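hey m, so remember when u said the C-alpha cells were messed up on ur end? i reran from scratch. heres the input so u can diff it against urs
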Amino acid sequence: MTLTQLIYAVKIADTKSMNKAAAELFVSQPALSGAVRDLEDELHIELFIRTNRGIVVTTEGEEFLSYARQMVELNKMIGERYMEHKQAKKKFSVSMQHYSFAVEAFIQLCSQFSVGEFELAVHETKTHEVIDNVRDYRSEIGVLYLNEFNEKAMQKIFSDNGLEFFPLFVCGVSVYLSKRHPLAGEETIGLDELKDYPCLSFEQGEKNSFYFAEEVLSILDYKQIIKADDRATMLNLMIGMQGYTLCSGIICEELNGGNFVSVPLDTEDTMTIGYVKRKNMPLSILGQKYIEILRKYGSCQEIQ
C-alpha cells in the first residue's frame, strides 16, 4: 500500500467518478483503475462499486477512507511545512447540530485569529453528518448533545466510528418560541400546554432516527409536527405558525434576532452539550480555543 494509492482512493471517493478523478490527478483512467484494483486486492476488501451512474463507496470503503483521508491530509501538511518551506496555514473545521451559540463561538474564534493565513470552516448540519464529518477528517470537532434517552445508542455509534465524546455543560430543557406566542410570557410551560401548537423539528434525512433527533423528547406522540432543514426556516415557522421547539434554551440574539424567547419546560429532563473528536487525536490550538469559548456558555441562565 502506497501513499499514491491512498491519494487515488480519496480522489475517487470525492469525485464519485473514475474519469473525473483521473483528470484531476493527471493520470490515465486505466492506470488509476489498476492502482485501486491492486489496493483492493492487497486489503482483501472492495472499496468501490462501479455503476453506470458512477462510483459508490462500500461500507468497508467508508471505514478505510476515514483513515486514508487522515494520511493524505497529514502528508499535505508535512509537505507544505517542510518541503515547501511555508508557514503552516491555521486550519480548523467544526460541524454541529443547529446551535446558534456554537456558531457564535465560531465567530468569536475567527475574530481572535484575523491576522495571518487561515482556513476555517463551519458546518451546521444533520446529526449523522456531524458524526461522518469528524470521522472522515472533514471536521476536527462535532458539537451535539446526549441525554438519558439517546446516550447508550449514541455512545455506541461514536465508538463504532472511532470517536469519543466529551461533555461541556448540562442544561435543562426549554421551549423556544416567538415572543408573540401565547405562552411566551409564562415562567414555565408544561407539555399539555403545548399540545395544540406545532412542534418544530430539524429534518434528519435518510438516516433519520429517534436517537439522531436534535430535539429532546423526540419519541413523544405530538399532535402536530413540522420538519425543517435550516435554522432560518425554523425561526420563520415560530413566528408564522406559532410553532415551538425543545432545546437547551441558550439564546444568541445577535444571530437569531430579538423576536424569540426561551421558557423552561416543566420537566426534570436535561441535555448534556458536548463535542466529539477522533480517538487518540489531540486537539489543535484552534480546536482548544474553540472549546474554551464553548465552555463559557455553560450557564444557561446567564446567556438568556
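this time it looks ok to me. The longest helix spans residues 59-83. if urs says something different then somethings off w ur setup not the seq
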